[in-house]
Amino acid sequence: MIHGIGLDIVEIERIATLLKRQPKIARRVLTASELKQFNVLGEKRKIEFLAGRFAVKEAYAKAIGCGIGRELSFQDIEIVKEASGRPYIRHPKYHVHVSITHTKEYAAAQVVVEKKAGV
C-alpha cells in the first residue's frame, strides 16, 4: 500500500552557487557514505550529485509528510544503490522507491513510499 509520494526539483546553478559560498553544505546534506562518493567526483559531477541527493531527500520528506526540520534531517536519509545502480532509501517499515534525473539546468527526484507487508 502506498504511504506517500514526493517530488522535488532543484536548480543546478543554485546548488553550484551555494557550494561555492558554503562548502560545508555538502556535509550538511550528505551522510558520511554519500560524502565519500561525492569526494571522488569531478567538479561538475559533484554539483549534479549534491543537487540530486538534495532533491531526493526533499521529495522523501514530502512523501513521509513532515518536511525537513524538526522531525527529520538530511542526515536521517541515505540514498543507497542496488547492485544494478538503482537508487533507493533503506527504511525498516517502508519500501522507498527513488528516481533521480538531471538536465543541464535541473535535478529532479520522485519518491514513492510503500508500506512493507506485515508491518
Automatic annotation (TrEMBL):
Example GO molecular function: holo-[acyl-carrier-protein] synthase activity
Keyword hit for Nucleotide-binding: no
Signal peptide stretch: none
Predominant place of localization: cytoplasm
Catalyzed chemical reaction(s): apo-[ACP] + CoA = holo-[ACP] + adenosine 3',5'-bisphosphate + H(+)
Keywords from the UniProt entry: Cytoplasm, Fatty acid biosynthesis, Fatty acid metabolism, Lipid biosynthesis, Lipid metabolism, Magnesium, Metal-binding, Transferase
EC number: 2.7.8.7
Binding-site list for Mg(2+): 8, 58
Span of domain 4'-phosphopantetheinyl transferase: 4-109
Domain of life: Bacteria
Cofactor requirement: Mg(2+)
Bilayer-spanning residue ranges: none
Localization of this protein: Cytoplasm
SUPFAM superfamilies (UniProt xref): 4'-phosphopantetheinyl transferase (SSF56214)
Listed InterPro entries: 4-PPantetheinyl_Trfase_dom, 4-PPantetheinyl_Trfase_dom_sf, ACPS, P-Pant_transferase_sf, Ppantetheine-prot_Trfase_dom
Pfam family, one: ACPS
PANTHER family associated with the record: L-AMINOADIPATE-SEMIALDEHYDE DEHYDROGENASE-PHOSPHOPANTETHEINYL TRANSFERASE, PHOSPHOPANTETHEINE TRANSFERASE
Homology family: Belongs to the P-Pant transferase superfamily. Gsp/Sfp/HetI/AcpT family.
Its job: Transfers the 4'-phosphopantetheine moiety from coenzyme A to a Ser of acyl-carrier-protein.
Name under which the protein is recorded: Holo-[acyl-carrier-protein] synthase
